[in-house]
Amino acid sequence: MKYRLTTALIALAAAGAVQAQDNVLHVYNWSDYIAEDTLEKFTAETGIEVTYDVYDSNEVLEAKMLAGSSGYDVVVPTSDFLQRQIAAGVYAELDYDQLPNAANMDADLMAGAAAYDADNAHAVIYMWGTTGIGYNVNAIAERLGEDYEVDSWSLVFDPEISAKLADCGISMLDAPTEILPAAMNYLGLNPNSTDKADFEAGAALLESVRDNVRYFHSSQYISDLANGDTCVAVGWSGDVFQALYRAEEAENGVEIGYVIPKEGALQWFDMLAIPADAPNPDLAHTFINFIMDAQITADITNYVWYANGNAASMPLVDEEITSDPGIFPTEAAKAGLWASVPYDARTDRTVTRLWTRVKTGQ
Ligand code: N2P
Asked: Least packed by Cβ within 10 Å: which of 192, 193, 195, 197?
């Protein structure tokens, strides 16, 4: 009898555990990419607990998505990666009946995102930004002169200029599909070329400045820039502004700037999507709808300094952010921005091989 009771209790406890698990949402997002209180507010409003993991590379996310059974309910691929992952059957179609806040989204930006995902069937915009240059104003002035204007990729891609900055520390994103095209563009080549020779030329340019680069990493640079441990970072717009803000808060005398170089830069969209094998697609929809609330998205932009795709949130975004041309590029700067295209398998192999060579010298 006692045995039976225990079994029944175990069965009950197990059922309880399953139920508890049912109410846990698993989110996988970029690091430094959400407001301090977003998850807390979500749980308070919905009763849904969140486990939240972070990454700093599309390649890492892609490997997990292609392997399947990641256990994640919501992930945030960049649009070009999203496109080929959709083709690989990785994402579920969104159920817009569960996403009434989609009405808040900016129609033009969503139309832009639809170039990667017809009718926005699988994803909505989370945040967007550019891949440009963050720099320490005083460190550059000391090395290149008070009148030196930071407005060109030559700061990092010209071997003579970057050599003068090697001592204070240059970092670049570990993002081959962003850095190689930036190098190609600087050489006057099409950043969206899939011609192997163009990638070879971009890689050769990077190798010519390789000795001046302290490291390739896609999240470490925020604190390094903020603390003055590095003086130049090829990085993502909002991340550089986060560094700027952290330095201001620390009152450590570090002044940071962000520039979309005059030769042009990559503009990207990061997209909220639900893996086809997500354990809890309903909770995922609840979360995505919550994020598309005007105030919630505005809170995120105000905290992470990235532009968003939510028109209704704009009046709630700090003026300091909406008026900053590094976050919301001017019309003139917009003309120089390019959007990336997904690579086919062959181009992908070329990029992977060249990137290893650039980073390791082999
Ligand atoms: C946040 C980086 C997100 C931008 N740290 C990369 N698409």
From this structure: 197
254 CA from centroid of ligand 1 (Å): 23
Question: By residue range, what is the domain housing residue 60?
Answer: 2-128+269-315
Give the gyration radius of the chain's Cα atoms: 22
Q: Which amino acid is at 50?
A: V
> pLDDT per residue over 22-68, tens digit each?
789 999 999 999 999 999 999 999 999 999 999 999 999 999 999 99
Take atom 6 of ligand 1 and give the residue whose Cα is closest.
Answer: 236
65 plus 105 within the same structural domain:
yes
Q: Is the pTM of this model over 0.85?
A: yes
Tell me the per-residue pLDDT of 179-210, one tens digit each, with 9 for 90 and over.
Answer: 999 999 999 999 999 999 999 999 999 999 99
- Pair (247, 355) in one structural domain: yes
Ligand 1, atom 3: nearest CA belongs to which residue?
Answer: 30
pLDDT band at residue 19 using 50, 70 and 90 as cut-offs: very low
Residues 188 and 155 both lie in one domain: yes
Question: pLDDT class for 21, splitting at 50, 70, 90?
Answer: low
Centre of ligand 1 to C-alpha 38, Å, is: 17
Residues 135 and 228 in one domain: yes
**Rounded to an integer, what distance in angstroms lies between the CA atom of residue 121 and that of residue 276?**
13
Q: Are residues 207 and 297 in the same domain?
A: no
Return all residues near 200 (Cβ < 8 A) that are at least 6 apart.
Answer: 354
Ligand 1: which residues within 6 Å by Cβ? 30-33, 78, 236, 239, 268, 270
Say if residue 335 is exposed, middle or buried (CB neighbours under 10 Å; 0-12, 13-18, 19+): exposed
**What letter would DSSP give residue 270?**
E
Q: How many helices (H) and strands (E) would you count in the chain?
A: 17, 11
The CATH number assigned to the domain holding 23 equals: 3.40.190.10
Examine residue 212 and state whether it is found in any structural domain, yes or no: yes
The pLDDT of residue 4: 45
Query: Are residues 168 and 203 located together in one domain of the fold?
Result: yes
139 and 8 assigned to the same domain: no
